[in-house]
Design goal:
Helix content is 33%, strand content 22%. The protein is α/β, with parallel strands linked by helices and 708 residues long. The chain folds into 3 domains: 45-267; 327-422, no CATH class; 440-584 and 597-696, no CATH class. A 6-stranded mixed β-sheet has the order 3-2-1-4-9-6. It has a 5-stranded mixed β-sheet with strand order 22-21-20-23-26. It has a 4-stranded antiparallel β-sheet with strand order 14-17-18-19. It is globular, with a radius of gyration of 34 Å. The relative contact order is 0.05. Keywords: Glycoprotein, Golgi apparatus, Membrane, Signal-anchor, Transferase, Transmembrane, Transmembrane helix.
């Protein structure tokens, strides 16, 4: 790994370390058999990275439903991981809190068990451990910023340093009321001595006991500042009014103690949030001023300054097909509806969005022109909005306003304003951990119209899964028309497919490919899945495939990673290649392997492919059955996607999937299915013919040929 090296002539100053790269040569003992190295999926795991900060909150029976709840509602969501610890056994846990009960309310025992628990469960996962009481208000963002400036290689015991009563003048312990920070290295060194501390050290206060334990066995005392960072605290007096506190010590405090009740906790949170917000706005203004000053020195000059300052410039389309359209709206209606209708009522999130943006426009106008003018809204004349993926949501409003002067004179005027709701900081949503070792059960429904494509499907399945020993199985679902089912003893329409399956089973002795025969005129996806679901265990991971799908290991791994039991189902959008007769014509050649996603499109009309767990499907299917009762004909108009969408509380992950590439084929659309499903199938066929440019060229050539 590269490091930081000091020039030979320079001498390292105080507090400076010298880092040099060190190359570790690879050596393998020729006398030992070669063993394949198992690599981790994430580089973070292999390099031994840890999460940054773990927070422990000590609570009690008297304050669990009051102060602890207030802590959870104010600062808990700012920390990456926070747990509550109590000595109460069998306590009823308030909603949204994770509680660890030790079963003994003695303060020293609670501290001893808490430190042991943290070491046992989180000692190898986090770099810093912050321990606080529930009567402490902590500025979470400041604490997170503090640990980013401290070295993780040192033994740190940081907090509000207090003297022991009658003890050594040099020794200090960290006051528990103001919280304290412990590094991972110190926790690892302290753990072997916890039992000795419990038996040998007598103390009334748990924070004194822990401080004495660290000093006696590790020789480390509590400090209030380290590596140039200060741990600021403030002690609240009785009947304190947070809004009236103007002391610099209070404004800079990371922790405030004691907080006597929930109301005071909320008032403190509001006050410090306002301070942080004002500080952020001031930083934004300073950065915008710097951007303006620097832009004037660039070749483009002030013309290169974008609005708003500091936000990305609007997206510039390279062709007319890339132009982002504006959606028109009023205060009552939206004229670009999700269902494609030309006009619909403004409601829900869209209505709240429009109301908020109008209020924001008035607030900005009044802040700019007051006290000379004061504006109030009469009416929204016109509203336009569009989402620009490079910067956020853009708005243009035509407002009918009433302007009132300082002397009370009023005037009605129309004014156009532009606003931007910029994209905020991207947050990583925590998801349950999954691996790529899960077995995938492929389910392939087949009709008579699919017989020409089965051979290619089985060849790709054998090459990409059986030859590579991928953990995947295949089940075929033969869908017989009633007429074909009656003649199956004389002529089996699927006899050729069964012969190909037999050849595969001979070639791969350990592989069995079962099939299920179904007789129906209307091959409803839900009814077919009901049959398959009953024949497999509840923990089966299904991949519902289509005959045009070319199976590969890359997609199967994404199927495993994107499907989470009792959490998420995955509906990939496959890439559909265009008709080669229209795209390439006689004189053109197919696209190269490096550009295989060029001559086609992602088919958003198709929901044929899906990855989900059998247990999740059975749960959703039970709710569906209770809703429709015995009206089985409703199932003919539904797909598996509809079952999960309307009858499960799971996340539905719908995303383009470059690993699923399908060759062009004209799909057979069954008119016996519902009107919506038939219409989607027809649209899929039409849009899969070729791009606009290819279709235009084909029409042009046809007209040229007809004219001659």
């Amino acid at each position: 790994l590269p490091g930081r090296a000091r020039p030979e002539a320079a001498a390292p100053g105080p507090g400076h370390e010298e880092f040099r790269p060190r190359i570790v040569p690879y050596y393998r003992d020729p006398n030992k058999p070669y063993k394949k190295v198992l690599r981790t999926r994430y580089i973070q795991t292999e390099l031994g990275f840890h999460e940054r900060l773990f927070v422990a909150v000590l609570t009690s029976k008297a304050t669990l439903n009051t102060l602890a709840v207030a802590v959870n509602k104010t600062v808990a969501h700012h920390f990456p991981r926070l747990l509550y610890f109590t000595g109460l056994r069998g306590a009823k846990v308030p909603h949204g809190m994770v509680l660890v009960a030790h079963g003994d309310e003695r303060p020293i025992w609670l501290m001893y068990q808490t430190v042991r628990y943290i070491h046992q469960h989180f000692g190898s996962d986090y770099d810093w451990f912050y321990i606080m009481q529930d009567d402490t208000y902590t500025q979470a963002e400041q604490v997170k910023a503090l640990v980013t400036h401290l070295s993780i290689n040192q033994d740190v015991y940081l907090g509000r340093a207090e003297e022991f009563i009658g003890g050594d003048e040099q020794a200090r312990y960290c006051h528990g009321g103001f919280g304290y920070l412990i590094s991972r290295s110190l926790l690892l060194k302290l753990h072997p001595h916890l039992d000795s501390c419990r038996n040998e050290i007598l103390s009334v206060r748990p924070d004194e006991w822990l401080g004495r334990c660290i000093i006696d066995f590790l020789g480390i005392t509590c400090v209030s500042q380290l590596q140039g960072q200060h741990y600021h605290t403030y002690e609240l007096a009785k009947n304190t009014e947070p809004e009236k506190e103007e002391e610099e010590e209070f404004q800079a405090a990371l922790a405030v103690h004691p907080v006597s009740d929930m109301t005071l906790m909320y008032r403190l949170h509001k006050h410090f949030s306002r301070i942080q917000l004002d500080r952020t706005y001031q930083e934004i203004q300073d950065l915008q001023m710097q951007i303006r000053n620097l832009t004037a020195l660039t070749p483009a000059g002030e013309a290169g300054l974008t609005w708003p300052v500091g936000i990305n410039a609007p997206f510039l389309p390279k062709s007319r097909f890339e132009v982002i359209s504006w959606d028109y709206f009023t205060e009552q209606h939206l004229f670009s509806c999700p269902d494609g209708s030309p006009k619909c009522e403004l409601s829900g999130a869209s209505k709240a969005d429009v109301s908020e943006i109008i209020e924001s426009a008035l607030e900005q106008l009044n802040s700019r022109y007051q006290p000379l003018l004061r504006f109030s809204k009469r009416q929204l004349l016109n509203g336009y909005r569009r989402f620009d993926p490079t910067r956020g949501m853009e708005y243009t409003l035509d407002l009918l306003l009433e302007a009132v002067t300082q002397k009370g004179h009023s005037h009605v005027l129309a004014k156009r304003v532009s606003l931007v709701r910029p994209l905020s900081k991207v947050e990583i949503i925590p998801m349950p951990y999954v691996t790529e070792a899960t077995q995938v059960q492929l389910v392939l429904p087949l009709t008579v119209q699919d017989l020409d494509f089965v051979g290619n499907f089985l060849d790709m399945f054998a090459m990409n899964t059986l030859d590579t020993h991928d953990n995947a199985l295949l089940t075929l679902l033969f869908i017989y028309h009633p007429y074909d089912a009656q003649r199956v003893s004389q002529v089996d329409v699927f006899a050729g497919v069964k012969a190909m399956v037999g050849e595969l089973e001979k070639r791969y002795a350990e592989v069995k490919i079962p099939w299920i025969s179904v007789k129906t005129e209307v091959p409803s996806q839900v009814k077919l899945m009901d049959i398959v679901s009953k024949k497999h265990p509840v923990d089966t991971l299904f991949f519902l495939a289509s005959v045009w799908t070319e199976i590969n290991m890359e997609f199967l791994n994404r199927c495993r990673m994107n499907t989470i039991s009792n959490w998420q189902v995955f509906f990939p959008v496959h890439f559909q290649e265009f008709n080669p007769a229209l795209v390439y014509r006689a004189e053109q050649t197919a696209s190269s392997g490096t550009d295989f996603l060029r001559d086609g499109h992602f088919d958003r009309h198709s929901f044929a492919e899906a990855c989900f767990y059998n247990s999740d499907y059975m749960t959703a299917r039970t709710k569906l059955a209770a809703d429709i009762l015995d009206r089985d004909e409703v199932l003919d108009s539904m797909e598996v996607f509809d079952v999960f969408l309307h009858y499960s509380g799971l996340h539905l992950f719908r995303a383009v999937e470059p690993g699923l590439v399908q060759k062009y084929a004209l799909r057979s659309c069954n008119p016996r299915l519902s009107e919506e499903l038939y219409h989607r199938c027809v649209l899929s066929n039409l849009e899969g013919l070729a791009s606009r440019s290819h279709l235009a060229m084909a029409l042009f050539e046809q007209e040229q040929a007809n004219s001659t």
